[in-house]
Structure formats: structure tokens, C-alpha cells
Amino acid sequence: MTIHSVIIDELPDTDGPISVIPPKKLEAVRYPDPILTTPTTPVDFDLNPGYRLVAQAKMEAVLRRYGENALGIAANQISLPFRMFSYWVGPDKIRTLVNPEIVESSGHFEFQEGCLSIPGMSFNLSRPDKVLLLAQEMDGKEVEIESEGVLGRLFQHEVDHLNGLLVWDRLDTHKRQIAKRRFKKLSNERN
Ligand SMILES: [Zn+2]
Which of 51, 59, 87, 110 is the most core-located residue (most Cβ within 10 A)? Predict the structure, then answer.
């Protein structure tokens, strides 16, 4: 309860239209922000829906800002520690899912995976091809989504985020260390 009210208090600018949020606040937070490596809190539907709606609105606004450069975004990537993510389901349509869990997976699929929180890098990763996702809609209705290929990959990537894992946590230790060093160097060059 406390954490939710604190977060809402920190977002006074979302009372107005989303377009009034300063552009800088419409960016995904980057590694090593600790919120990215902290597991998120499950959404309690008995609580006031305000924080859920704020999270949904902000995730949509950030996704729209990235446009084609992003497939989805997790709430902790915009500094909100809730178990929610949003993703593109059509040219102009974004869906938000709450309390997602991957309950079944099978097969293998190689894919070059990037992340808004680790900009400038991508990793060739093999993960399960088909996954079954259980989640809730914004109104609490339970949904079961079978997916494969890129959509299945997106679900795994976002659920990892919500569990406090980043894409390089799926690499072996040596490759992960190299990747983190390279990202640190990239970040220093950008500053
Ligand atoms: Zn990501």
C-alpha cells in the first residue's frame, strides 16, 4: 500500500495529458539503475486502480515515443515497481498485461535481442520458441496467451524484466562480464 501511494505522489505531472510529461521522463531507465534488477511487486486488484492506470498510461506514452524501436516495455523500466508490461499488438494498438507468468515453454528459437535499458547493444540468444503466458487484463480478467517466435520472445524478455533479470543474465558468466564492460564503456563515451 505504502509503496503504491509513494509512487503516485512522485508522479504529479501525470495528472494532466500525457503530452505534458517532459520528454526526458518518457525514456526507459538504463542499467545500472537498481530498479531494473529488483523483482517487481504483484498487482493487487483490491487496491485503488489509480496506480495501475498511471503505469499503463506512462508505459504507453514511452512505447509510442520509441515507436518502431521497441516491441514492449516493463513497468520497472519506467521506474514503477509493478508486475505489468505493455507491448504493441498492431500498428497503433498497445496492450497492457498484469501479473504475467510463463507457465509452459518448448522448442528453441535464436533471435538477436536488444533492450531499451541497454541501448546500443544486442545479443544473439537461444530461448524457448513456444510459450504459454498467464496474465490478467487491466480489469482483472484472466487471460491465457499461446505464442511463438518473436511474440514468445517478447513475453520472455518482459517477464524476465519483471523478475529483475536483464537480457545478459541469460548469457554465460564470461559473455555477461564482457557485455557489461562493453556497455559501461559505451555509456562513458556517450557522457
Ligand atoms: Zn528490455
Answer: 59
Q: How far is the CA of 30 from the centre of ligand 1 (A)?
A: 10
| C-alpha cell, 78 | 519506467
Question: Ligand 1 center to residue 99 CA distance, Å?
Answer: 17
Verify whether residue 142 is a known catalytic residue: no
List of residues 6+ apart from 94 with CB closer than 8 A? 59, 60, 63, 64, 86, 87, 88
For 10-76, give the DSSP string: T-GGGGS-GGGS-GGGGS---TT-GGGGSPPBPP-TTS-THHHHHHHHHHHHHHHHHGGG-SEEEGG
Is residue 93 predicted with pLDDT exceeding 90?
Answer: yes
pLDDT per position as a tens digit, 8-27: 334 434 444 444 455 667 89
Q: How far is the CA of 50 from the centre of ligand 1 (A)?
A: 25
In one-letter notation, the amino acid at residue 118 is I
Cell of 40: 517487481
pLDDT at 23: 60
CATH class for the region spanning 4-190: alpha beta
Ranges of each domain in the chain: 4-190
List residues bridging with 114 in a β-sheet: 122
140 CA to centre of ligand 1 in angstroms: 25
| Catalytic choice (27, 60, 110, 158) | 158
Task: Please tell me the predicted confidence (pLDDT) of residue 26.
Answer: 87
SS3 106: strand
